[in-house]
Amino acid sequence: MMRWFGKYIPRGSVVLAVTTFGSYILGLLRDRTFAQTFGASASLDSYNAAFLIPDLAFNVLVASGIAAAVVPLFIQLRATNQRQAHVYINSMMTIAVIVMGMMGVIIYIAAPWLSHLVAPGLDANEHILVAELMRILALSPILFAASNALGALLVAQQRFFFYGLSPLLYNIGIIAGSLYLAPYLGIKGVAYGTVFGALLHLTARVVAAWRSGWRPVPLLQVPIPRLGETLRLIGPKMLGHPVELVTFWAFTSLASLMSAGSISILNFARNFQSVPVSILGIAMATAVFPDLARAALASPTQVRLLVRRTALSIFLASSAAAVGLFGIRHQLVTILLGGGAFDEAAIRRTALVLGVFCLAIPTESLSHLLARAFYATKNTAIPVLWSIISLLVAVSSAYGLSHTIGIVALPIGFFLGSLGKVVGLWITLHIRLTPVRAAIPQ
Q1: Does position 418 have pLDDT exceeding 50, yes or no?
Q2: Domain residues of the chain, as ranges?
Q3: Residue 243, CA distances (Å) to 222, 257, 393 in order
Q4: Cα separations in angstroms, 6 against 11, 162, 189
């Protein structure tokens, strides 16, 4: 039994699944606090809309490179020279913090204009609130820039506990802001709590990295090891990594044109749906990523076998989770969100949107594994291509259907885009990892 478990369940995935589950329990508590304090209201819509630009900037400029490039390159460097590997991590962290600091200044200045861009359907007072919230939230990506660099180090070393603990602490910060600051500052208290949560997120990873032997050196050490290769991998990934955020940016814009509270309902339903994706798909894909990187140094056959085993586990587990979540969706929304300002009509709409979102749980879970298989082989262009195709399918289909079926069009569009992406990635990866056999002379 243990041998089977070790073969099909990547090492460290259980730790990541448990910490991710804990994070989402806190996330549901956070959403319940939001729902009962603010309801499906314009103020909560403003917070969700204000979150988009800082998060998008972080994913485009920093998280894309960290996720795709740093882990396999750090593993290569560490195998021959640990000091150079730490120089590489420190340099990447310093660059990331500088870049996000500059972007934070831009967001602060442009916030009034950006508020109209992310949620065109809001009124004048709500746009002012979105701009004020966006200026506060622009601090979080600076902290996340440093935290994600250290996260890459922890993943490469397969130190998953503190890596997985960070999101729990992030949610604790948001909940603290909701409970202790919101009564005095309103929705701005939640924004300040979000920044505090980002600081806790970073603190946990600093502690873990320090225990691993890393020491902070906040200076660029020239020449930076593997800088050219890092930039080559980051380039395509900067276009593809934030596709999901752009998708939900478009969905947010569509929802802002619907009845009040539609943005909040979309976010609540998406948060529920993302729980099994994170616990099963992302946890297993993250845990197997270092093994995929090492297998890629050996042979395509090892990568192919590892992907097939892990994909089978992810597909079976995520499909079962999708069926289970669909069956209890109304009860779950009622128990965790219902009450206070969140009335029966809001419960029904959220459960409806969540039920359709369940279709995308297996496809989205598999896409995380397949993308990391490409990253392990140092190819970021192909996942970007399929992500962009997914974006076009999701947004165009959601837009076309929204005129007739309303908010349900958004999760349907998301599923269609996710399905196209995972099928495309699977076929392309199979072609890439299949050795070309020379023709036999006649």
Answers
A1: yes
A2: 1-35+260-434, 42-235
A3: 33, 22, 12
A4: 7, 22, 45
Phi and psi torsions of 339, nearest 5°: 110, 165
From CA 330, how far away is CA 309, in angstroms rounded? 34
Q: Is the dihedral of CA 340, 345, 348, 349 positive or negative?
A: negative
Which class for 61: exposed (0-12), middle (13-18), buried (19 or more C-beta within 10 A)?
buried
* Cis amide prior to 242 (ω within 30 degrees): no
Query: Phi and psi at residue 69, in whole multiples of 5°?
Result: -105, -45
Cβ partners under 8 Å of residue 214, min gap 6: 86, 89, 150, 153
Cβ(289)–Cβ(372) under 8 Å? yes
Structure tokens, 272: 């529920």
Q: Token pair for residue 417?
A: 């885009």
Contact 293, 72 (CB under 8 A): yes
Tokens 């996260």 belong to: 151
Question: What's the Rg (C-alpha) of the chain?
Answer: 21
Q: Give residue 8's pLDDT.
A: 54
Give the dihedral sign, CA 107/108/114/115.
positive
Confidence class of residue 243 from pLDDT cuts 50, 70 and 90?
confident
pLDDT at res. 135: 94
Q: In which band, very low, low, confident or very high, does the pLDDT at 441 lie, cut at 50, 70 and 90?
A: very low
Q: How many CB atoms lie within 10 A of CB 67?
A: 23
How much of the chain is in helix, strand and coil states, percent to nearest 5?
85, 0, 15
Place of tokens 């990331």: 96
* Percentage of the chain lying above the pLDDT 90 cut: 27
The DSSP code for 408 is G
Rounded mean pLDDT of 359-381?
A: 90
Can you read off the two tokens belonging to residue 228? 């050219």
CA 333 – CA 315 distance, rounded (Å)? 25
